[in-house]
């Protein structure tokens, strides 16, 4: 661990992006704490889609629980808590940051923000999430091939998603639920040229089958229309309390601006996953988490020592290596994945 800090890295958020960052920083010999307030979009998943090697039988909670156990097994600390603020301890990134939670205070060298966002939910009546109410077209469109589907929303996003769904099924309704459409004239013309039914009446009731899946919606004009599922398109609310406190640069849509390595406009603070621009997908989030973790490792690793550092610190001695904390060293040697695990009969 770097002198003067409680941890080398604090990861704020325990979803796929944050846990992957922690996996990399911990396995790359940096003392890491994950501070997770719980919940999140991944935790809502009834089934996991589009993650190679993980089947649909795995729920979001099961995926996250396995991930937490993995990073803890490598030596990271995973704490339940709400991060109230992150404050720079000086002008330079190497001065570190103070991370304040609702119960603890940590001095850390680097911070990874992985707090994500929450999808805005439409008003009820609604089917259960994952049983007719779905927030990820890229994840779930496959489920509705040749099935009747709906899109809720009266804006550009809703109109375009309705037209995109025609790639998967010929039975698509766009439900404005009594709202006046706000899409452009160009989009209105596009809708006219696509076989999408725009239903303007508000929903007054819902019917589910014996398995709890959506079966149909009832409308105030007396219609009953059958659906296997659909997608609400009302935007997102970013979990950005810490972002606002640090005055980090944002994009036009409210996401956190980052470079190719996840670095934000505040040196030493990284952002990954749904908090950043791009596709809100677990594999993408994992990739961003991995890149940030590797980048932080390169910034903080002790060796090779530069020629400039030799002038002030001298040559590397036997006492200087290896450059990881005693706790992480012990955990690594005892881990099943170590080259000479205690469970390996050849080491006994």
Ordered list of secondary-structure elements with their pairings:
Blueprint: E1 7-12, H1 16-27, E2 32-36, H2 60-73, E3 77-80, E4 83-88, E5 97-101, E6 105-113, E7 117-119, H3 137-140, E8 149-152, H4 156-164, E9 172-175, H5 185-192, E10 196-199, E11 203-208, E12 214-219, E13 224-226, E14 229-232, E15 236-238, H6 241-246, E16 269-271, H7 282-300, H8 307-313, H9 326-334
Helix pairs in contact: 1-2, 1-7
Pfam families: Pyr_redox_2 (PF07992)
EC number: 1.8.1.9
Protein name: FAD-dependent pyridine nucleotide-disulfide oxidoreductase
Structural account:
The protein has about 350 residues and is α/β, with parallel strands linked by helices. The chain folds into 3 domains: about 5-120 and about 235-300, FAD/NAD(P)-binding domain, CATH 3.50.50.60; about 145-230, FAD/NAD(P)-binding domain (3-Layer(bba) Sandwich); about 315-348, no CATH class. Helix content is about 25%, strand content about 20%. The protein is built from 9 helices and 16 strands. It has helices at about 15-25, 60-75, 135-140, 155-165, 185-190, 240-245, 280-300, 305-315, 325-335; strands at about 5-10, 30-35, 75-80, 85-90, 95-100, 105-115, 115-120, 150, 170-175, 195-200, 205-210, 215-220, 225, 230, 235-240, 270. A hairpin with a 4-residue loop joins strand 12 and strand 13 (about 225). Helix 1 (about 15-25) runs parallel beside helix 7. The model has no long low-confidence stretch (mean pLDDT about 95).
CATH homologous superfamily assignment of the largest domain: FAD/NAD(P)-binding domain
| Radius of gyration over C-alpha positions, nearest whole angstrom | 24 Å
Q: Might you state the CATH topology name of the largest domain?
A: FAD/NAD(P)-binding domain
| Number of alpha- plus pi-helical segments | 9
| Main beta sheet | 7 strands, mixed
| Elements, N to C (H/E) | EHEHEEEEEHEHEHEEEEEEHEHHH
GO molecular function: thioredoxin-disulfide reductase (NADPH) activity
Enzyme class: oxidoreductase
Protein name: FAD-dependent pyridine nucleotide-disulfide oxidoreductase
Domain FAD/NAD(P)-binding: 7-289
């Amino acid at each position: 661990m770097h002198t003067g800090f409680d941890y080398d890295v604090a990861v704020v958020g325990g979803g796929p992006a944050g846990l992957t960052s922690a996996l990399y920083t911990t396995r790359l010999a940096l003392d890491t704490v994950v501070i997770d307030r719980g919940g999140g979009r991944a935790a809502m998943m009834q089934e996991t889609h589009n993650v190679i090697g993980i089947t649909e039988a795995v729920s979001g909670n099961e995926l996250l629980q396995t991930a937490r156990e993995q990073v803890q097994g490598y030596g990271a600390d995973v704490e339940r808590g709400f991060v109230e603020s992150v404050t720079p301890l000086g002008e330079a990134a190497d001065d570190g940051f103070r991370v304040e939670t609702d119960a603890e205070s940590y001095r850390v060298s680097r911070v990874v923000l992985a707090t994500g966002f929450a999808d805005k939910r439409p008003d009820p009546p609604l089917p259960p999430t994952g049983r007719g109410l779905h927030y990820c077209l890229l994840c779930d469109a496959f489920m509705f091939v040749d099935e009747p589907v709906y899109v809720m929303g009266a804006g550009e996003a809703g109109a375009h998603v309705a037209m995109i769904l025609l790639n998967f099924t010929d039975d698509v309704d766009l439900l404005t639920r009594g709202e006046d459409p706000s899409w452009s004239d160009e989009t209105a013309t596009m809708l006219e040229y696509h076989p999408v039914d725009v239903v303007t009446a508000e929903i007054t009731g819902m019917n589910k089958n014996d398995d709890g899946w959506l079966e149909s919606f009832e409308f105030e004009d007396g219609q009953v229309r059958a659906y296997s599922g659909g997608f609400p398109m009302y935007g997102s609310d970013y979990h950005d309390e810490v972002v606002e406190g640090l005055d980090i640069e944002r994009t036009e849509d409210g996401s956190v601006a980052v470079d190719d390595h996840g670095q934000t406009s505040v040196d030493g603070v990284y952002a990954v996953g749904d908090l950043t621009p791009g596709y809100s997908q677990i594999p993408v989030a994992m990739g961003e988490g991995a890149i940030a973790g590797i980048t932080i490792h390169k910034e903080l690793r002790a060796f090779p020592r530069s020629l400039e550092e030799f002038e002030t610190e001298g040559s590397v001695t036997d006492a200087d290596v290896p450059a990881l904390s005693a706790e992480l060293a012990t955990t690594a040697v005892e881990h099943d994945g170590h080259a000479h695990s205690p469970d390996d009969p050849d080491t006994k």
